[in-house]
Amino acid sequence: MNINIQEQNGTYVAKLSGWLDTNEASQFMEDIKPLEAHIDKSIVLDCKDLEYVCSLALRGMLKLKKESAAKGGTLLLRNVTGEVQKVLTMTGFIKLFDIE
């Protein structure tokens, strides 16, 4: 699991890649902490190169989305495909996120 966070025209984009399973979920939560400093802005989690995501990591993403909304920011999932989309659908999380 790798995360690359960049600012692009006032939007903070976190490019996620690899396999985000239960073993990686704790590290994922640490890796996205820099986004908390920009919680009042637009945040995009780009899932183009993300091969898998577990429900524990999805809960972390949802926590970030709720915190962002509370501060007037937004969180968007982008380029959701394959196994990630299946997990989002099976867990019902697909209804909880804005997806592009």
Structure in words:
The protein is of the alpha/beta class and 100 residues long. The chain has three helices and five strands. Strands 1-2-3-4-5 form a five-stranded mixed beta sheet. Strand 2 (11-20), helix 1 (22-31) and strand 3 form a beta-alpha-beta unit. The longest helix is centred in the middle third of the chain and has 16 residues, at 55-70.
User: Which class best fits the helix and strand makeup?
Assistant: alpha/beta
pLDDT < 50 runs, ≥5 residues = none
- What general outline do the C-alpha atoms trace? globular
Largest sheet: 5 strands, mixed
The tally of helices reads 3
Strand order of the largest sheet: 1-2-3-4-5
Radius of gyration over C-alpha positions, nearest whole angstrom: 12 Å
User: How many individual β-strands?
Assistant: 5
From the N-terminal CA to the C-terminal CA, the straight-line distance is: 22 Å
- What is the percent of helical residues? 25-40%
How much of the sequence lies in strands comes to 35-45%
The average pLDDT is 95
Helices and strands, in order, run as EEHEHEHE
Write the layout of secondary structure elements.
Layout (H helix, E strand, L loop, with lengths): L1 E7 L2 E10 L1 H10 L10 E12 L1 H16 L3 E5 L3 H10 L6 E2 L1
Parallel strand pairs: 2-3, 3-4, 4-5
Antiparallel strand pairs: 1-2
Helix pairs in contact: 1-2
